[in-house]
Amino acid sequence: MNRSGKLSRTRRGSVLVESSFAILPLLALMFGIIDIAFAIFVRNTMQFAVRQGVRYAVTSQTMTGLGQDDSIKAVVRTYSMGLLDGLSPDGDGSRHIAINYYDPIGLTLLAGAGSNVGGNIVVVSCNGLSWAWMVPLLRSTAPMQFSVSSADIMEATPLAGAPTR
After folding, report:
1. Alpha-carbon separation of residue 4 from 1, 8, 13, 33 (angstroms)
2. Residue 103 in contact with residue 97, Cβ under 8 Å?
3. Is residue 3 exposed (0-12), middle (13-18) or buried (19+ Cβ within 10 Å)?
4. 71 HSE (CA, 13 A, CB side)
5. 5-19, 99-113, 118-132: which has the minimum mean pLDDT?
6. Segment holding 70, helix H or strand E
7. pLDDT: is 105 or 93 the higher one?
8. Is 146 helix (H, G, I), strand (E, B) or coil?
């Protein structure tokens, strides 16, 4: 400042340059934190969705007109809040949901009718999901790949028998 209290012409330009040097890194840091937080939110939401699918599976319930596996997939899609289709590279999230039943003694994979009887272990998983970073500075040619899964033991088989898969 000179004696009259006004900024000199050379000081006015330096304030603009200095503020841009301070604001750009702060904005990059802020958007990076938001991006990482959203990635954590996406993974936690998908983990919650498969947990709800397992909780539905262990009760041997089915939706009207659907088999048990299709009912479980519908529950997972519902609880994924639309993220399942968005995270699937091909846009069809139901193709990435896997439902497997295991024998609790030998941990062998069971297939076909009767594999969903009480006492067996059910594993619901979503594999091959990809997340592309929102902030362009963090984005690479290969998006982050992740999978989520959950497992539990099936409850006793209903008197009518195990539902069709």
Report:
1. 8, 10, 19, 45
2. no
3. exposed
4. 18
5. 5-19
6. helix 68-79
7. 105
8. strand
pTM above threshold 0.90: no
Q: How far apart are CA 31 and CA 53, in angstroms?
A: 33
Longest dimension (CA), the chain: 96
Write the CB contacts of 144 (distance below 8 Å, at least 6 apart in sequence).
39, 130, 131, 132, 133
Indicate the DSSP class of residue 148.
E
Asked if 71 and 61 touch (Cβ cutoff 8 Å), the reply is yes
pLDDT tens track for 24-68: 888 888 888 888 898 899 999 999 999 999 999 999 888 999 989
Identify residue 102 by its one-letter amino acid code: Y
- Residue 26 dihedral angles phi and psi, to the nearest 5°: -65, -40
The pLDDT assigned to 58 comes to 92
From CA 124, how far away is CA 149, in angstroms rounded?
Answer: 6
Token output for 47: 């983990």
Tokens read off for 164: 């069709």
Structure tokens, 58: 């262990």
* Domain residue ranges in the chain: 9-153
State the DSSP code for 87.
H
Type of residue found at 16 = L
In the three-class reduction of DSSP (H, G, I as helix; E, B as strand; rest coil), residue 102 is classed as strand
